[in-house]
Amino acid sequence: MTALPKISRTAFVRQRRSSKKPAILSSQRPVKISRKSFNHTAGNLPLEKRQVARQGYKQPAKKTRRKGYDIVFTLGRKNVHAPAINIPELGTRWISVSLTTILAFMLFIMWTASPFTVKGAAVVGNQRLGVADINAMLGMIGQPIFKAAPAQIESNLHTAFSDLASIKVHVGLPNRITVNVVERLPVIAWYQNEVVTWIDASGVAFMPRGDVPGLIHVAANASPVNVPLDPAIPIYAQKFIPPGLVQAIIALSRDVPDGMPMAFDPRYGLGWQDPRGWSVYFGQVVKDVPMKKIVYQAIADTLTHQGIQPSLISVEYLNAPFYK
């Protein structure tokens, strides 16, 4: 046997290294490191290297995917897959904008649509005042019902018609307006300067409308004493004559000769023209009217018996009657 030559350890290692072939890599892929393993590895490094490692680490960005739906349907004998339909995700801001646009469009339609346009008002409680007169002063004909303000309509009607004691307006959809009125009841027809004014029992004056039988006709040569304005009462409800004067007119109206109007003079008060040719006055208050009538009849009989023809007899003051 032939003895093998002796090789040193150093030469053996060099020969072994030279005999190895380098490995050929078919593909190179980056190594993915999770956040947990990265933090664990960086935690074992010194503080300086740990900060550098953290600054160099970048978390992979998340990919946002839209929701898609695959629609599968059968067309004949073959299954056909339609392309995916991407439905965008709308935020709350887009929903709010859509709702606002829809509401604005609906309001525009309701504001301009014919079913919401006022054609006229239904009037309840009127006797002498016509429905056409109220609609003419309503201020809402041809306007959308949404502009109707009951308080404003009531104010307009009170200003236009002082003969209405009470007005209540109700508004409803689609275009309904109901006006409930209470008309003043006149008791006096006041004639002054060839103008006729009606007066109710509270002393409020208003223009005549229609025909009311049984009114007391008063012919005045001047206006009565001005009644002070009450700031708590609206202008259309202010009194033209005091309520006491109205009661005096009613009390004396039964003794006025037939066919003769009652007279009013701001100096002597209420009276009338006696058929025997003189004027008689009883003052402006209803107090002691029965006794004043007795005194007047006694004075008239005495003057007639004596053949005196007076032009005026006043019994306004019982303790000081006089004649002219």
Please render the helix and strand layout as text:
Layout: H1 9-19, H2 35-43, H3 47-56, E1 68-69, E2 72-75, E3 78-81, E4 85-86, H4 92-112, E5 122-124, H5 131-136, H6 150-160, E6 164-172, E7 176-183, E8 186-192, E9 195-200, E10 205-206, E11 216-220, H7 243-252, E12 262-265, E13 269-273, E14 279-281, H8 289-306, E15 312-314, E16 322-323
Parallel strand pairs: 5-7, 8-11, 11-12, 14-15
Antiparallel strand pairs: 1-4, 2-3, 6-7, 8-9, 9-10, 12-13, 13-14, 15-16
What does this structure look like?
The protein is α/β, with parallel strands linked by helices and 324 residues long. 30% of the residues lie in helices and 21% in strands. Among the domains are: 114-183, membrane protein fhac (Ubiquitin-like (UB roll), Roll); 186-323, 3-Layer(aba) Sandwich (Rossmann fold). The protein is rod-shaped.
Number of strands: 16
Query: Which class do the helix and strand fractions yield?
Result: alpha/beta
- Range of strand content: 15-25%
What's the end-to-end separation, in Å? 191 Å
Q: Could you name the CATH class of the domain at 186-323?
A: Alpha Beta
Q: N-to-C SSE series?
A: HHHEEEEHEHHEEEEEEHEEEHEE
Q: Do you know the CATH topology of the domain at 186-323?
A: Rossmann fold
For the record, the CATH architecture of the domain at 186-323 stands as: 3-Layer(aba) Sandwich
Strand order of the largest sheet: 10-9-8-11-12-13-14-15-16
Helix content: 25-40%
Q: Helical stretch count?
A: 8
Strand count, sense and closure of the main sheet?
9 strands, mixed
- Nearest-integer average pLDDT: 79
Cα Rg: 54 Å
Uncertain segments are 23-27
Report the principal-axis shape.
rod-shaped
